[in-house]
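Quick one:
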Amino acid sequence: MGAGIIVIGNEVLSGKVTDINSTWLMAQFHDLGMPVERVSIIPDDIAVIAEEVRRFSGQFDVVLTTGGVGPTHDDVTFAAIAQSFDKELVANAELEAIIREHIPAGSASGYLRMAKLPEGTHLLYNPGLPFPVTRVENVYVMPGEPTVLRKKFLAIRETFRQAPFVVNRAFLRVDEGEIAERLDRLQSKHPQVEIGSYPVYDNHNYKVQVTFEAKNEVWVESAFHEFLQEFRPEDIWKTE
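Output:
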């Protein structure tokens, strides 16, 4: 079932802030062998967030949200997730103590609203993190600030490791249109291998990159070898 990523924030939808979290997370998940099935960008709206989290939670093994977990009025992610799972939003004494320990007394009151979590929220600790990662059911709730998000994700990264993807690549000096029928035929013959074709227009070495990907090395090698047999050596810039 893989993973789903939900990016939360009006600032992303308006273009005021560029989302770099989802692309980084997709690369991380792929490296871990966890397929990302969908990415959604939604506003800071409790009803919208609640519905999207409920839907993603039922469709995917892992859901990861980014954004909406700070101390301000538009940080409504936890309230929405509580609604998603029909849970009460309650003060978490454990997280309150951590906030009081790390935040100056004069500022702590504003940040204590971040300790109101859906009932049953799991706090995931790591020696390198002052604040734990929060998980509600199969939903991991992350901040939107990229530096903090990356630290938190890397702390729990191995939780998501699966069998790795095997990827072979061919960089060809022919136009994509010339190989379209071959790819159609090959994909039908090897449905268990994901075949991708990606043209480039500003590279003097090759015109199209073709990838063969699956979790079974034998499948990938078989389809890849068959594909390469259809080209002259001079048509192939390199393979990986």
